[in-house]
Amino acid sequence: MMSNYSDYEVLRITELAPHIKEMDVYVPLIARSAKAGQFVIVIPDEKGERIPLTLVDWSHSEGWIRLVFLEVGVSTFKLGMKKVGDRLYHVAGPLGNPTHVTKYGKVVVIGGGVAIAAAYPVARAFKEAGNYVVSIIGARSANLLIYEEQIKSVSDEVVITTDDGSRGMKGFTSDALRELLNNGLKPDLIWLVGPAPMMKACTLVAKEFKLTNVVASLNPIMVCGMGMCGACRVRVGGRIRFTCYEGPEFNALEVDWDELLSRLKMYRKEEELALKLFKDRFGMR
C-alpha cells in the first residue's frame, strides 16, 4: 500500500521528559531492515551536524522509525524544534551491527538516562528469544525517567534507580546490579547502554563478581558513520576499533573506559559555547 508521506517526514514528536523528545520519522527503506541495537545518523537541516541516534522502534509495514534524543547541543535542539509534517534533511541507516540475540538464559539489560529508550528494543529482542530478562533502568530523578512502561512490558523483573531517590532505589544502576548479584542473581549476559561513566561503573561491578559475558553499546564521538573519519575510535582489548562499523557493541570488560571518557570531553567546551549562542539567537533558556 502506497503512503502519502515523503521520505524523512516527521510523523509524530512528543516530549517524554524535560528536553527529552520522541520522534517518529517516515523512512521506509530503513524501517524495512532495522534490527535491535542498530542506529541511524540524522541531519536536521542543511547546516546541521550529523547526529547518531539509536533505533528505538520501527514498523516494517508502515515505514516509520522511532528515535529518542536529548536536546543537549545545537543540532539536537534544531531537531527538537521540528513539527509534524516537517522534513529532516537526511537520515542514513541502519548503521552498526545488530545485537547478537540468542537464548542465553538470564539476561540483565541496563539502561541509563535517555538511553533507557535504546535498551527497550534490545530487551524486547532478548525476551522474544526466550530469555529471562531483568532490566535495570536509572535516571537522575523521577521526572527524567523514561520508557518505564515499555521496559516493564518486555521484562520479567525491573529495578528502577534514581540518583536522588525520588523513584525506586536511591543510587545508581551499578548499585542495583551489585545488590542483585549479592542476592544470588547469576546472569548469563549483562548488556549495557547509557552514559559512559555508568557503563564503566557497571563493568567494574561485573568484574568484581568475575562475570565474563558483559556487552556495552558504546557512544563515542561519531561523524561519518562509515569508519572513514576515525572520530569514533575506541580501544578494546588493546586494539583500536571503530564503533560505527565494528560496533556499536563490544566486550565491556575489554573497553578502555578512561580513554573513551577522555575523548568524550574533547568537544564539550566548544559545544557549550555553540549552544549558548544558539539559545541567545532564539531567546531560549
What does this structure look like?
This protein is α/β, with parallel strands linked by helices and 285 residues long. Among the domains are: 9-95, Translation factors (Elongation Factor Tu (Ef-tu), domain 3), CATH 2.40.30.10; 106-217, Nucleotide-binding domain of ferredoxin-NADP reductase (FNR) module (Rossmann fold). Helix content is 29%, strand content 29%. It has 9 helices and 16 strands. The protein has helices spanning 28-33, 74-80, 116-128, 148-153, 173-182, 196-208, 243-246, 257-264, 268-282; strands at 9-17, 20-26, 39-43, 51-54, 57-58, 64-70, 90-95, 106-112, 132-139, 157-162, 169-170, 189-193, 214-217, 233-236, 239-242, 249-251. The chain has a 7-stranded mixed beta sheet with strand order 11-10-9-8-12-13-16, with helices on both faces. The chain has a 4-stranded antiparallel beta sheet with strand order 1-2-6-5. A 3-stranded antiparallel beta sheet has the order 4-3-7. Strand 5 and strand 6 (64-70) form a beta hairpin.
Helix vs. strand class: alpha/beta
**Uncertain runs with pLDDT below 50, 5 residues or more?**
none
Question: Helix amount, in percent?
Answer: 25-40%
| Gyration radius, in Å | 18 Å
Q: Which descriptors apply to this entry?
A:
four-stranded antiparallel β-sheet, Rossmann fold, alpha/beta, 29% helix, single chain, Elongation Factor Tu (Ef-tu), domain 3, 285 residues, 9 helices
